[in-house]
Amino acid sequence: AIGYSGAEVDVNKIDVAFKSPKGEIAVCKNGAGIPFSEGKAKEILLEPEIEILVELNSGKYSSCAWGCDLTYDYVKINGDYRT
């Protein structure tokens, strides 16, 4: 989604983390995947609501987007592979 936004983004600066009441876990730093505990990630991602935190690290502005009701097929397709 970030790559299709039309904004100029330096992918080498992007950080990504997941957050829920069970905690927060970083999965990407400076545009690259980083080692993380899959057990902790699973605990966080099994919560009914999670936050996907994306830091572009390239300006002073911020934004928030909400999403819900991802279909079973969407989750299955996007969750069945690793890159």
List the helices and strands and how they pair.
Layout: E1 15-20, E2 23-29, E3 32-33, H1 38-45, E4 51-55, H2 72-79
Antiparallel strand pairs: 1-2, 1-4, 2-3
Q: Helix count, per DSSP?
A: 2
Apparent shape: globular
Biggest sheet, strands in spatial order? 3-2-1-4
Mean pLDDT: 88
Largest sheet: number of strands, sense, barrel closure: 4 strands, antiparallel
Poorly predicted spans:
none
Class by alpha and beta content: alpha+beta
Write down the domain tally: 1
Order of helices and strands: EEEHEH
- What is the alpha-carbon Rg in Å? 14 Å
Task: Please tally the β strands and state the result.
Answer: 4
Distance between the termini: 16 Å
Helix % is 10-25%
Share of β-strand residues = 15-25%
Oligomer: single chain
What does this entry look like structurally?
This protein is α+β, with helices and mostly antiparallel strands and 83 residues long. Helix content is 19%, strand content 24%. The chain contains two helices and four strands. It has helices at 38-45, 72-79, and strands spanning 15-20, 23-29, 32-33, 51-55. Strands 3-2-1-4 form a four-stranded antiparallel beta sheet, with helices on one face. It is globular and about 30 Å long.
